[in-house]
């Protein structure tokens, strides 16, 4: 049973002990060793996640990541087929191609309506990056991948993230979508 203790401000104390997905499935902006490091749990099927990336994240990147005040890691929650396809692709991309791949997807996903169109976008983006994939819509193929096995393990752990997008900072999970004021408030509380 997945359980969290929720506080009145959308704060979830990190009483959970789940293992994150391997870094090869994550997208890191800034240097991961920069503290604090914000970890955003997201899904490609979550409209709020995509809106956050396209609307608020550019300001966060400019104000806090590019100035090396924080690092930001996008951690997929592979509970849907598109995000499972994404993590399989991320595992085969070198670090320098992950951000352009992710940004192209996040920019173009809102323009598409059907699952097939979105899966085709992922497939095409991989082809453009010269990392073509077999048919990502082939479930039998995906079930045989390491990404599928790792996603299954992640999702079957106790107390994994259940609200998207969620932000983890210093092992505390916040269910509110962060904006610049949220990040600044967090930074102002640091010693």
Structure description:
It contains eight helices and six strands; from the N terminus they run βββααβαααααββα. By secondary structure, the protein is α+β, with helices and mostly antiparallel strands. The protein has one domain (11-188): Glutaredoxin (3-Layer(aba) Sandwich), CATH 3.40.30.10. It has a six-stranded mixed beta sheet.
Global geometry: globular
DSSP helix count? 8
The major pleated sheet works out as:
6 strands, mixed
Query: What's the level 1 CATH class?
Result: Alpha Beta
Write the element-wise H/E pattern from the N-terminal end onward: EEEHHEHHHHHEEH
The value of Rg in angstroms is: 16 Å
In the CATH hierarchy, the third-tier topology is known as Glutaredoxin
Helix content: 40-55%
- Tell me how many strands there are: 6
Tell me the span between the first and last alpha carbons.
Answer: 36 Å
Main sheet strand line-up: 1-6-5-3-4-2
**Beta-strand percentage?**
5-15%
How many domains? Answer: 1
CATH architecture: 3-Layer(aba) Sandwich
- Determine the structural class based on helices, strands and strand pairing: alpha+beta
Q: What is the mean pLDDT?
A: 89
Full CATH superfamily name: Glutaredoxin
Instruction: Show unreliable segments.
Output: 1-15
Write the layout of secondary structure elements.
Layout: E1 11-12, E2 27-29, E3 37-42, H1 47-55, H2 57-65, E4 71-76, H3 81-92, H4 95-108, H5 115-128, H6 139-143, H7 146-155, E5 166-169, E6 172-174, H8 180-188
Parallel strand pairs: 3-4
Antiparallel strand pairs: 1-6, 2-4, 3-5, 5-6
Helix pairs in contact: 3-5, 3-7, 4-5
């Amino acid at each position: 049973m997945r359980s969290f203790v929720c506080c009145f401000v959308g704060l979830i104390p990190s009483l959970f002990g789940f293992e994150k997905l391997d870094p090869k499935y994550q997208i890191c902006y800034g240097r991961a060793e920069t503290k604090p490091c914000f970890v955003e749990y997201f899904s490609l099927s979550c409209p709020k996640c995509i809106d956050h990336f396209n609307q608020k994240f550019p300001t966060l990147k400019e104000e806090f990541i590019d100035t090396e005040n924080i690092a930001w890691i996008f951690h997929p929650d592979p509970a849907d087929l598109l995000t499972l396809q994404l993590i399989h692709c991320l595992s085969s991309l070198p670090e320098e191609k992950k951000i352009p791949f992710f940004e192209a997807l996040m920019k173009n996903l809102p323009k598409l309506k059907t699952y097939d169109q979105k899966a085709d976008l992922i497939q095409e983006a991989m082809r453009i990056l010269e990392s073509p994939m077999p048919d990502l819509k082939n479930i039998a193929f995906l079930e045989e991948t390491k990404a599928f096995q790792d996603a299954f393990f992640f999702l079957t752990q106790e107390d994994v993230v259940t609200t998207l997008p969620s932000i983890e900072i210093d092992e505390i999970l916040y269910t509110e979508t962060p904006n610049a004021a949220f990040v600044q408030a967090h930074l102002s509380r640091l010693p």
